[in-house]
Amino acid sequence: MSASLPEVWLRGPLPAVPPLLQPVAHALLQAREELTEIMANFPAEKLAERPLGLASVGFHLRHLAGVLDRTFTYARGAALSEAQLAYLAAEGQPPTHPSAVQELVQGFAQQVDNALAQLIATPEATLAEWRGVGRAQLPSTVIGLLVHAAEHTTRHLGQLLVTARVVVGQR
Fold it and tell me: Which residue range or ranges hold the DinB-like domain (predicted)?
């Protein structure tokens, strides 16, 4: 994140994003900026390390993209695909090949782009509509899912940041 820019939410409204969904979009864009910065020089061979039993950086990277994909799918009122279920099952086994960090960061960035497109296309009048989550169809709403996606992203980004610093020995 550029030191000369304020946080995303202080840069003004995002064009075409409905006003009630601006905080979701701001949080996702902030996460993308911070993640890109945090992972810029992270060594791929350390993606699977789990210091003190914490979830690995690679897990967080995969989980960040996967959760956005899944929660936004539920917000559309759709069920998860077989590909999404397979991705979920593989989140705990991050790749560690040399280009893995770049691929995972790009995967998250693409999910943020997909999420922004969906936010732009979401009429505010639908935000209170019921949505079922998971096989059990637990009750939520469109706005509940979208806000949860932003909150969950922010939480895992913080965990990733701490774990990445521990793994590479930074203070």
Answer: 28-160
pTM exceeding the 0.90 threshold for the entire prediction: yes
In this structure, the number of other CB atoms found within 10 A of the CB of residue 135 comes to 9
Domains present along the chain, CATH in parentheses: 19-168 (1.20.120.450)
Tell me, what's the pLDDT at 128? 98
Burial of 17 (0-12, 13-18, 19+ CB in 10 A): middle
**Contact, 140 vs 74, CB < 8 A?**
yes
C-alpha closest to that of 135 among 85, 68, 75, 65:
85
With beta carbons less than 8 A apart as the criterion, state whether 119 and 24 touch: yes
Cβ distance 154 to 31 under 8 Å? yes
Bridge partner residues of 133 (DSSP): 138
Sequence-ordered alpha helix ranges (H) in 21-169: 22-38, 57-75, 82-90, 100-121, 142-168
What lies within 8 Å, CB to CB, of 136 at 6+ separation is: none
